[in-house]
Specification:
Length: 287
């Protein structure tokens, strides 16, 4: 599936687009405040024993007879964290969510960024341990191919706390989910942002999430908890459900806009590579 040559060719096309549009980076700017042997000039400093003599500015020495070295801004490799919703409510769009994760992971590894992938549900489950380099791409694709839904009621806030406890290094955190969390999404997003990660939400929903075509008597069973409820669905209740989902999605959009969190909403009816192309052409994973 994800390791098929035809699928990998689609990923390679996305990587080539990323390299062309973003110079190979998922982020628009990866410069740090630290100084070192980069390529962008930052400052001067007095030469000390042990400094790289190749950084000495000989023109200044010729004029003032002082040994001064040039300092440059460092550009660090980014750490890309993919948090893929693996709860059972994602079953109908789980392959699509993993396709999006595969594309982002492939671009990251081929851009020599560090990559780490987790599944989230009622707990956080490692899928791809931190890795780097083009040679790790097939292993990442295989791990996503073998990933299955798991757990009970999704607890996004708990997963955010577990993630931060495991991964202290700041990076780009991309949450791929329908964001229909029973406990809400605000606290989890705030927690990740408070720890100074660059945060991006990739919302995945299908018609089964947004529309209610049921009419009459029905017995509903929660796919995550197994709880059942007998209801009667009238046209008015169907419209109320659709309005509630639309309102929930609008609250996610407003929260991300207020908090300067990047957001894209999509569904399986849109090819995954089309979504990634649009993200790249908008400038990458920026709010």
């Amino acid at each position: 599936m994800f390791t098929d040559p035809s699928f990998v060719r689609r990923l390679e096309s996305l990587y080539l687009l990323a390299r062309k549009v973003l110079s190979g980076s998922l982020q628009a700017d990866r410069k740090t405040t630290r100084k070192g042997a980069g390529i962008t000039f930052a400052d001067y400093a007095e030469y000390r024993l042990g400094d790289d003599f190749r950084s000495i500015d000989w023109r200044i020495y010729a004029k003032f007879e002082s040994l001064i070295i040039k300092l440059f801004e460092l550009e660090e490799d980014a750490t890309i964290y993919l948090l893929v919703d693996g709860s059972r409510s994602m079953e109908s769009k789980f392959r699509y969510a993993r396709e999006l994760a595969a594309a982002l992971g492939y671009i990251a590894l081929n851009s020599l960024d560090r990559l780490c992938v987790y599944g989230l549900a009622d707990t956080l489950r490692p899928v791809v341990e931190p890795c780097r380099g083009r040679g790790k791409a097939m292993g990442m694709l295989k791990a996503l191919e073998e990933m299955e839904t798991f757990g009970g009621d999704t607890d996004f806030t708990l997963c955010a706390r577990e993630f931060q406890a495991r991964r202290k290094r700041k990076g780009v955190v991309i949450v791929i989910s329908d964001f229909l969390f029973p406990g809400g999404f605000e606290e989890g997003l705030k927690y990740l942002q408070w720890h100074r990660h660059d945060l991006y939400c990739l919302q995945v929903q299908d018609d089964g999430d947004r529309r209610c075509d049921w009419k009459g008597d029905a017995t509903l069973e929660c796919v995550e908890t197994g709880q059942t409820r007998r209801i009667t669905v009238t046209p008015a209740e169907a419209r109320a459900y659709e309005a509630a989902v639309a309102g929930w999605n609008e609250s996610l959009r407003e929260h991300c806009a207020r908090s300067r969190i990047g957001l894209a909403s999509t569904g399986p009816e849109v090819a995954f590579d089309t979504v990634i192309q649009e993200i790249l052409r908008r400038g990458g994973l920026v709010a």
